[in-house]
Write a structure and sequence with these properties.
Layout: H1 6-36, H2 46-51, H3 53-66, H4 78-102, H5 110-140, E1 146-151, H6 155-166, E2 172-178, E3 187-188, E4 191-195, H7 200-206, E5 211-214, H8 224-234, E6 237-240, E7 253-257, E8 260-264, H9 273-308, E9 314-320, E10 326-332, H10 340-343, H11 357-364, H12 372-378, E11 382-384, H13 391-400, E12 413-415, H14 417-420, H15 429-441, H16 445-459
Helix pairs in contact: 1-3, 1-5, 3-4, 4-5, 4-16, 7-8, 9-11, 9-12
Protein name: Undecaprenyl-phosphate glucose phosphotransferase
GO molecular function: undecaprenyl-phosphate glucose phosphotransferase activity
Family: Belongs to the bacterial sugar transferase family.
Length: 466
């Protein structure tokens, strides 16, 4: 049975992570100073290197916390966890390099920092997968399971059971459902309706349960107050899964109006002035750095476009941005010059004859998007955000796809959560919007940094770009 031990497990996890960070750092120091460096004259004494651990260990643990590495393993996938570990280590390296630059310490070995990050990443991923495997083995033996009773047979109940069945590694075991309108004995994916809601108090007295999940249908919400009172009287942890889950955010944002809780239908962190300022500063600094770094490539691209086809180098297309306002988005021209009416016909298709030879290359590699760095600098776009669409498609999709217009509550981006998850070009608009809404509701600086890193490693090559 699960009692509330997650806090103690997290503390143990922090201690283990701290030990791994220390071991990784010491190994990196030994490899760099004793195995790689031939002449150790002028190297800093060991005491200086070890003193840095006083700052490195708590700093990396804070980064792990910021990248959600201490959330329960029941609901966090291995790939997502490995990605978060990588991002945390990458940001840690950048911070160490920045600190060394600010304190003007040229003798501190820079290669040591990269060796440390590599070792730390590998050992941390191994450690967490070992813990995950141990927990799964324990659950297979019937231990460490979270026993749940559901109150109410509804669409929300079926969705919850579906996810539990698809993810046995979570260690959830649904012991049954109580409902007043469905016949006892009815099964849904081996979960049985065991009685009516009136039997809840008796069941709680005679069974040891970890949680009660209230999954009443909308037409039964009048029973909610009595059921919650019964659950709280028993002391069992109670969660509420609303039957209208498709219209509320994944992380509900509530306000307190003198004791009256108000749930906001859409929580957008970027409506906060401070968050907006932080993101805008990141966009300005990031776009300037990228313009400087990629200027040779952009210049070469411009020359090749001009030399191989007639027409302008830069193509400006009207897109819909923040607060539904249109703006001109810049791209390197990858197609033959067309009339305005031809442009509105639709998306580019496979083997589209309008695409130039150079255009095929720059579209596949996303080089055609680089001029949007100037859109970011102007404030029309952000480095990270939902991709903007043309006005005619916005009008079409707003009627066909629920919640489509939510994406216009933030600045559009050059890259985004949908793009790094493979939804680019000729892919599902609905899944793209799901990713956009997830990003909008869960925005953090860490998520932006993670998306930028993922874009570098798997976002530039677009197999769906024609």
């Amino acid at each position: 049975m699960i009692k509330d031990n997650q806090k103690h497990f997290n503390r143990l996890h922090v201690v283990i992570d701290g030990l791994i960070i220390a071991v990784s750092y010491i190994l990196a120091w030994y490899i760099q100073i004793h195995l790689i460096v031939k002449d150790r004259a002028g190297t800093l004494p060991v005491q200086i290197y070890m003193l840095a651990l006083v700052f490195v260990i708590p700093g990396f643990l804070l980064l792990y916390y910021g990248f959600n590495l201490y959330t329960p393993k029941r609901v966090q996938g291995r790939r997502l966890e490995a990605s978060n570990i990588f991002c945390a280590n990458a940001v840690g390296v950048l911070l160490i390099m920045f600190v060394l630059y600010m304190v003007n310490e040229p003798d501190f070995s820079r290669p040591l920092i990269f060796i440390f990050a590599g070792i730390n990443y590998v050992l941390t991923v191994i450690e967490r997968n070992v813990i995950r495997a141990l927990l799964r083995d324990i659950r297979r033996r019937g231990m460490n399971l979270k026993h749940i009773l559901m109150v109410g047979y509804s669409r929300a109940a079926e969705e919850f059971i579906d996810r539990v069945v698809q993810n046995p590694q979570w260690g959830y075991q649904v012991n049954g459902i109580l409902d007043d309108s469905v016949r006892p004995g009815t099964l849904y994916k081996n979960v049985k309706v065991v009685g009516s809601t009136s039997s809840l108090e008796k069941i709680l007295e005679h069974n040891s349960l970890d949680e009660i999940a209230i999954t009443l249908g909308l037409n039964e919400y009048y029973k909610l107050k009595k059921i919650v009172a019964t659950c709280e009287k028993s002391g069992v942890h109670t969660k509420f899964i609303p039957d209208y889950y498709d219209i509320i955010p994944t992380r509900p944002y509530t306000e307190d109006l003198q004791g009256l809780p108000v749930i906001n239908i859409r929580h957008v962190p970027l409506t906060n002035t401070f968050n907006m300022m932080v993101k805008r500063v990141m966009d300005i600094v990031g776009s300037i750095l990228c313009i400087i770094i990629f200027s040779p490539l952009m210049l070469l691209t411009a020359v090749l476009i001009k030399a191989t086809s007639k027409g302008p180098v830069i193509y400006a297309q009207v897109r819909v941005g923040l607060h539904n306002q249109p703006f001109k988005m810049y791209k390197f021209r990858s197609m033959e010059v067309q009339s305005p009416s031809e442009e509105k016909k639709g998306w580019t298709t496979k083997n589209d004859p309008r695409v130039t030879p150079i255009g095929k290359i720059i579209r596949r590699t996303s080089i055609d998007e680089f001029p949007q760095l100037f859109n970011v600098l102007k404030g029309d776009m952000s480095l990270v955000g939902p991709r903007p669409e043309r006005p005619q498609f916005v009008e079409k999709f707003r009627e066909e796809i629920p919640r489509y217009m939510v994406k216009h509550q933030v600045r559009p981006g050059m890259t985004g959560w949908a793009q790094v998850n493979g939804y680019r070009g000729n892919t599902s608009i609905r899944k793209r919007i799901d990713c956009d809404i997830y990003y909008i509701e869960n925005w953090t600086v860490g998520l932006d940094i993670k998306i930028l890193f993922l874009t570098v490693f798997k976002g530039f090559i677009n197999k769906n770009a024609y």
